Amino acid sequence: MIISVASGKGGTGKTLVATSMALSLKDKGKVQLLDCDVEEPNAHIFIKPVLIRKEAVSIPIPKVDETRCNYCGKCAEVCAYNAIAVIKEKVLVFPELCHGCGACSYLCPEAAISEEGKEIGLVEIGSSNGMEFVHGKLNVGEAMAPPVIRKVKEHINPKRTVIVDVSPGTSCPVVESIKGSDFCLLVTEPTPFGLSDLVLAVEVARKLKVPCGVVINRTGLGDGKVDDYCYGEGIPILLTIPLDSGIAYLYSRGTPLVEGIPKWKETFLQLFSNIKEIVDGRDSQD
Ligand code: SF4
Ligand code: SF4
């Protein structure tokens, strides 16, 4: 089973939930944690893995052979990202805008475009006391997170329960990370900002046809509108975590919640079994 842990908004406690669930499951069976928040991976701070392997991530960038080019402009016409332009008798490539989709080289009538790899990040693979761990790191200044996320997800071990820590927001990296999950846990906080971003995150999960449930972090803060929204939309609230200075202190020290306050382990195991029940229930309906 693959469970992605997402949040429409940064700073809601997504990594706290992902690492706590992974660490709680570790003693019960085989678990793998993937940190797909490649712009700012931080699960390793809590998991403290031993990293044993690195893999570079590259995307193919077009390289134009101007001896073959007739400056027809087809490449610029088909590029959806304005990453290639033809100005008089010159073809300009803007690598920072290129998504490496290959459309320009495929459609060039003169076969004047070849591709060269541009390194945009890396994936590191390791483990921590029997838990498999993989995270991706996008190079500073690069904008193409999805290829790094895809590379992280190539390491999904189907024999393990997989927890995916998703980047915040609702853009392409989030879609790429949630895609293919059996369940998406959305972590939010009970504030108007939390609700507004939760609504968008629910839309993403629904578009991807991934069932979702909510964790409300820092309860006691804000109002009850997140609860009202979830009840109205039929989205289960699977866990609430109180606003607690002890939890914040552990997080600030890089101490996993379930190690600092071991009673939380049972709570996260219960959360996992509730998710499993929902996923199994859907599978039996299909
Ligand atoms: S499509 Fe090919 S031939 Fe046409 S301008 Fe681009 S590189 Fe040159
Ligand atoms: S590879 Fe795709 S994104 Fe990059 S320049 Fe060519 S068409 Fe544009």
Description:
The chain is of the alpha/beta class and 286 residues long. The chain folds into 2 domains: 221 residues, Rossmann fold (3-Layer(aba) Sandwich), CATH 3.40.50; 46 residues, 2-Layer Sandwich (Alpha-Beta Plaits), CATH 3.30.70.20. Helices cover 36% and strands 29% of the residues. It contains 11 helices and 11 strands. It has a 9-stranded mixed sheet, with helices on both faces. A hairpin with a 2-residue loop joins strand 4 and strand 5. The longest helix has 22 residues. It binds iron/sulfur cluster (2 copies). One iron/sulfur cluster binds next to helix 3.
Low-confidence stretches: none
**Helical proportion, percent range:** 25-40%
| CATH H-level superfamily title of the largest domain | P-loop containing nucleotide triphosphate hydrolases
Taken as a percent bin, the fraction of beta residues is 25-35%
* Overall number of structural domains: 2
Secondary structure tally: strands: 11
CATH class of the largest domain: Alpha Beta
The major β-sheet equals:
9 strands, mixed
Q: Please name the CATH topology of the largest domain.
A: Rossmann fold
Following the backbone from N to C, one meets helices and strands in this order, namely EHEHEHEEHEEHEHEHEHEHHH
Radius of gyration: 22 Å
**Distinct helical segment count:** 11
End-to-end gap: 16 Å
